[in-house]
Amino acid sequence: MCRITTSDPSEIAGIDQDLLQDFVRIARSKRVSPVLALGGWTGSRFFSTIVATAESRTKFIKAILALVDKYDLDGIDFDWEYPGHQGLGCNAVDPDDSANFLSLLQELRKNRSNLELSAAVATPFTGPDGNPMTDVSEFANVLDRVELMVYDTWSSKTNVGPNAPLRDDCAPSDFQFGSVHSIVDQWTQAKFPIEKLVLGLAAYGHSFTVSPSSAFNGSTRSLNTYPSIGGPQPAGSSDTPGDTSKDPCGNPYGLSGVFTFSGLVNTGFLDERGNAKYNYAIDGCSGTPFLYDEKSQVMVSYDDAKSFGLKGAYIADNNLAGFAVWDATGDYNDILLDSLHSAIGISACD
């Protein structure tokens, strides 16, 4: 991942040369195509500015191709979060972002026809009216694939819910914020081929403070679905309480409450086989698990081997292009990846 940290289209800064060279070397030794992602949540501030004019797009393409040639890359993945609407909070945004992005991709494809081009996306690209486009077929002509970031979908500030639901049409209407089923449907209805869709999965979850009276369904000790949030944000597996660092917009990061799957093991929420050591339930609608530690009053919405298996089966049954995981280092002893590979019917790489 390389963040776009300047509005100068001729400069792609912040590259760890040794790390990138090692990545390419290891990828090629495993017969894997090395692809570099540009952007990310904190690295998309200047995408809009860089693609705004024909002149700046040409300069940006020249910089991209110089990077590709220098490091022997097979492709570029654009992780612009997001064309046409705000992401981090201080990103440059323009109603013509998606049109300008398409022009960039078309020119890049014309300059280097064999370069793998992909994009990390949520809903279909935003049109000038601020709504998802209903026809993205022109993007399909220049992109080899898009990765659907179907995680961090939960938007309620008052209730706990799934981080990465398989489906949400069975949830109460107030709690339908997007799911694998709904996002795939949006893209295919917008004329993007399903065989070019890559399903993005999360090797992490989010934590919430929930009182026992809200967490449990009466005296049954079964966990409630969508319990009320009852306290401040708990610290996640990588959080440092008291950290005063700030994001690129100048806002304090604060506590994220994020637990990687491996973090749940290392902090004692899960055992080394990935099984919950506390109260546990699978939400039948979203197909994702929740666990709850009554003593700390922490509830975590996350993905485990079962939910990864369900998503793997969906990929296979619907002929999607494959999967992407953010990120694989969050797994523990390949528990999630092994379940995913098994469900899809593929062998894991060595």
From TrEMBL:
<dbReference type="GO" id="GO:0005576">
    <property type="term" value="C:extracellular region"/>
</dbReference>
<dbReference type="InterPro" id="IPR029070">
    <property type="entry name" value="Chitinase_insertion_sf"/>
</dbReference>
<dbReference type="GO" id="GO:0008843">
    <property type="term" value="F:endochitinase activity"/>
</dbReference>
<protein>
    <submittedName>
        <fullName>Glycoside hydrolase family 18 protein</fullName>
    </submittedName>
</protein>
<feature type="domain" description="GH18">
    <location>
        <begin position="1"/>
        <end position="347"/>
    </location>
</feature>
<dbReference type="InterPro" id="IPR050314">
    <property type="entry name" value="Glycosyl_Hydrlase_18"/>
</dbReference>
<dbReference type="GO" id="GO:0006032">
    <property type="term" value="P:chitin catabolic process"/>
</dbReference>
<feature type="region of interest" description="Disordered">
    <location>
        <begin position="226"/>
        <end position="247"/>
    </location>
</feature>
<dbReference type="GO" id="GO:0000272">
    <property type="term" value="P:polysaccharide catabolic process"/>
</dbReference>
<comment type="similarity">
    <text>Belongs to the glycosyl hydrolase 18 family.</text>
</comment>
<dbReference type="InterPro" id="IPR017853">
    <property type="entry name" value="GH"/>
</dbReference>
<keyword id="KW-0378">Hydrolase</keyword>
<keyword id="KW-0624">Polysaccharide degradation</keyword>
<dbReference type="InterPro" id="IPR001579">
    <property type="entry name" value="Glyco_hydro_18_chit_AS"/>
</dbReference>
<dbReference type="InterPro" id="IPR011583">
    <property type="entry name" value="Chitinase_II/V-like_cat"/>
</dbReference>
<keyword id="KW-0326">Glycosidase</keyword>
<dbReference type="InterPro" id="IPR001223">
    <property type="entry name" value="Glyco_hydro18_cat"/>
</dbReference>
<keyword id="KW-0146">Chitin degradation</keyword>
<keyword id="KW-0119">Carbohydrate metabolism</keyword>
<dbReference type="Pfam" id="PF00704">
    <property type="entry name" value="Glyco_hydro_18"/>
</dbReference>
<dbReference type="GO" id="GO:0008061">
    <property type="term" value="F:chitin binding"/>
</dbReference>
